[in-house]
Amino acid sequence: MPTAVLSTPTLVLNRSWSAITTTTARKAIGLVYTGAARIIRPDTYETHGFDSWADLAVEDGEPSIRTVSFEMRIPEVIVLTHYTGMPTQEATFSRRNLYRRDRNTCQYCGGRPGTSELSIDHVVPRSRGGLSNWVNCVLACVGCNGRKANRLPKEARMHLLRTPIAPRWTPIMEVPIARVRQSWRKFVSDRYWEVPLEP
């Protein structure tokens, strides 16, 4: 089986059909084979077990896996048969998520010099009691960070492009936007794809 095809992301829904994470096609097929999940056909919302899914015809150009006895489509969406839990509803404050929230953009000048030229700036400096959290940290390019130094933006005569806030998305979909399947939008709110920067 081609490794690249089996690494294709598959959306995972809980038993209530709420999106909870993504997994690889390899793991998704394994879950379906053991009965822990069923495959959803996004165009009809029909659910299939392993055998009925393997019986479906594969269309030309559609990602699939081939065995000695059959060819099977790669599942785009699966639903777990027993799990009803939901993921954490708050995004973890981390360097990676801060870069994601600010879209790799300096929040003072709007520049996008690349991640190696961006750093995390504390709006209220730590030496003046500023905390490391969503509302006090922004991305800043090397030039803006040096210019602001250990001052408040107002003191440095600098202005934030956006007020920093905690994002209203959950980081369960760690899939590059280019690999997101159109069919997932039927099951996942747009808040997962768009990172709101303003209240």
Index terms:
5 helices; elongated; alpha+beta; 2 domains; 199 residues; DNA Binding (I), subunit A
Folded structure, characterized:
This protein has 199 residues and is an alpha+beta fold. It has two domains: 3-87 and 172-192, no CATH class; 95-148, DNA Binding (I), subunit A, CATH 1.10.30.50. The chain is 16% helix and 20% strand. It is built from five helices and nine strands. The chain has helices at residues 3-6, 25-33, 50-54, 95-101, 142-148; strands spanning 9-13, 19-24, 37-41, 46-48, 64-66, 71-73, 77-80, 118-122, 137-141. The protein has a five-stranded mixed β-sheet. Strands 5-6 form a two-stranded antiparallel ribbon. Strands 8-9 form a two-stranded antiparallel ribbon. The chain starts with a helix and ends in a 51-residue tail after the last helix. Residues 193-199 have low confidence and may be disordered.
